[in-house]
Design goal:
alpha+beta, Nucleoside Triphosphate Pyrophosphohydrolase, 2 domains, 6 helices, 8-oxo-dGTP pyrophosphatase MutT (NUDIX family)
């Protein structure tokens, strides 16, 4: 565990960075022992206010320079790369998919990524009461939000609208489909079909005016569709790799358990 000096100004005080070069489990354990708030986690590190610096050291962090801390984090493979003002949510390592294993960075952002590098889209669809539309994927054998691979002649928003319509029968207004984050995939196996040139799944959100409008049974790849409450959404999807991003986008999901 490593911590640099609290010299980084923000919100009227000075902050340090707390990282692990071993595991996220170690990072979270030391952060809890130091009394850091969970919201101070930024994907691959904790922002430590100056008043908590000595607590972090007492909990097991070793002081070092900012340059050395960054070097250690990069070398560990635990660094989550993101743009300025994006919020790092989590880095999920060695996630298994039908098309091979990948490391996945989850990032919350209202700014879309370069669409030339987007291979797929997913949409958090909510009705006017706050319930979520979910679909059961035969290929993945799990519930999730609508989404899928992008066609070569469509934008990420068009991708999101088309997939949602094909899987649920809902026809979304593109003007109300807003980016809220992204998943960046780094393939871990040679048989992975995700390209390093197009590693992004763009995540959107949309809110409908109606309460639980009718859903269809979806296309051939979808076994079932339904509307669920936030609690039911967590029960169905809270164990999945992308759930931390959903909980970041929708604060009411935080603390709900699968």
């Amino acid at each position: 565990m490593w911590i640099d000096e609290p010299i980084w100004p923000a919100h009227g005080r000075q902050f340090a960075h707390l990282v692990s070069d071993e595991s996220y489990a170690e990072l979270h354990a030391v952060a809890r022992a130091a009394g850091l708030h969970p919201r101070s986690f930024d994907g691959d590190h904790y922002d430590v206010p100056d008043v908590r610096w000595h607590d972090a050291v007492a909990a097991g962090a070793t002081p070092t320079s900012g340059v050395d801390l960054a070097r250690r984090l990069n070398a560990s493979g635990l660094r989550l790369r993101k743009r300025k003002h994006d919020r790092g949510v989590a880095r999920q390592l060695d996630v298994l998919f039908p098309n091979g294993a990948s490391d996945v960075d989850l990032v919350a952002s209202s700014v879309p990524v370069d669409e030339r590098r987007v291979y797929a889209a997913m949409v958090f669809v909510r009705d006017s009461r706050g319930d979520f539309a979910v679909v059961y994927s035969i290929r993945r054998r799990q519930w999730g939000s609508p989404g899928g691979w992008r066609e070569s002649d469509e934008s990420p928003v068009e991708n999101a609208v088309r997939e949602t319509h094909e899987e649920t029968g809902l026809l979304l207004d593109p003007a109300r489909v807003s980016p809220c984050g992204y998943e960046r995939f780094t393939p871990r196996t040679d048989d992975n079909v995700i390209s390093l040139d197009k590693p992004y799944l763009q995540v959107f959100r949309t809110e409908l005016d109606a309460v639980r409008p009718p859903l269809t049974n979806g296309d051939d790849g979808i076994h079932a569709t339904r509307w669920v409450t936030p609690q039911e959404y967590a029960a169905l999807c809270g164990h999945l790799f992308w759930w931390p991003l959903a909980a970041e986008v929708f604060p009411e999901l935080r603390g709900l358990r699968a």
